[in-house]
Amino acid sequence: MLSTRPDFGKGRRIVTMQPVHIIGGGLAGSEAAWQLLRRGVPVVMHEMRPVRRTDAHQTDGLAELVCSNSFRSDDAEYNAVGLLHEEMRRCDSVILACGQQARVPAGGALAVDRDVFSQAVTARLIDHPLFRLERGEVEGLPPQDWGSTIIATGPLTSPALSQAVLDLTGEGQLAFFDAIAPIVHFESIDLSRAWFQSRYDKASDGGDGKDYINCAMDKEQYEAFIQALIDGEKTEFKDWEKDTPYFEGCLPIEVMAERGVETLRFGPMKPVGLTNPHTDKRPYAVVQLRQDNKLGTLYNLVGFQTKLKYGEQARVFRLIPGLENAEFARLGGIHRNTFINSPRLLDGALRLKAAPRLRFAGQVTGVEGYVESAAIGLLAGRFAAAEILGESMEPPPGTTALGALLGHITGGAEADSFQPMNVNFGLFPMIEPAPGTKKLPKGRDRKRFYTARALTDLDAWLGRRAAAA
Description:
Elements: E1 20-23, H1 27-38, E2 43-47, E3 70-73, H2 80-90, H3 94-101, E4 103-104, E5 109-112, H4 114-126, E6 131-135, E7 149-151, H5 159-169, E8 174-180, E9 183-185, E10 195-196, E11 212-217, H6 219-231, H7 253-258, E12 285-291, E13 298-301, H8 310-317, E14 328-330, E15 333-339, H9 342-345, E16 351-352, E17 355-360, H10 370-388, H11 401-412, H12 443-468
Parallel strand pairs: 1-2, 1-7, 2-6, 7-17
Antiparallel strand pairs: 3-5, 4-5, 8-15, 9-13, 9-14, 10-11, 11-12, 12-13, 16-17
């Protein structure tokens, strides 16, 4: 297949292979591009920002993080998302490599300086001779002469493209609301009331077990805060948005408060593993803040995504002890996410059944979370590269985090009730009892079994892929 652009690659080399087009420069699109480039397949990425902006993005950088700055747990032995981190590292993920480069203290989690991270991913792609970035919105379905195309437009897919996919598939569009947590300036936090400590003093790589700032509440303060959340003025939805559900893993803080006075004490405000050095007691409830940039000048309120109006956010969040004089670098917000009914619409290689030249990747497929979105981008890029190069590619084993996630969105989930899903051990094949016994490992032993099996099977899959290449 010949390229129609002899100047492809910024004039540094002549490319004769037709490029794969990627729509969307988020985490999934960036990861898909990297996987293609690493296999010698040229890429044209179409990113509508800044020509057309979204309600959530702040910059025109690739792989911009619009919500939290955390990729969640980095524990590859006992946590499903940590396992996914390790699998992606073994698959040469640009997202995990740049995440490590931009890492900031966060206990056992992988959190990043969002600006350093985006700049690193952007530089890796822009500097590659087989990569070209085109700014502007793709209105409607990609033209036929593009050939292989990956749609990685994320939760904020433009209305024109969303409608074109809906018309092509005959499916109704699914949607849910996602909320963003506020960020405060470190210097405005009162450390005579707050303190540094990770839960159970757990340290990140090179950390000291003091990766979070904690703001304690007694019972009276907590109950007053809950009432303020419930009473605070909130964003009003448009008529067409009112039946859109929230994603359960990213509920606005005030929605959780409305579910019962104790809900937050067993959620993001749980006090376990912490001791207030100002009182030598465990707090009744606690608000944690996590470093948001490498300089340590910005901290975000962990789990405090919100739909409170801006003025109310400043008033209510300054009720938190230690944040009475908080200055906000960014207030929280809420935006409508869209995703397709992947179990019904996609095949096992992420191709749209109604138009196999089109692949989908990332959050638009119905996975939830930064890492999960990038993981599906990784697989879409590898599937597309194999197709272009005339190679065969089996999907990763279902015993791996990559394979379990892929299997869920391409047939494992019920299409009629499909909702966004984070990676979790419930997506993995069940453990069989050891020969001669009916006993199954439990607790941490069970999780360790899943992760060890996954990495063994992934290495075997990667070995077969390398031998076949």
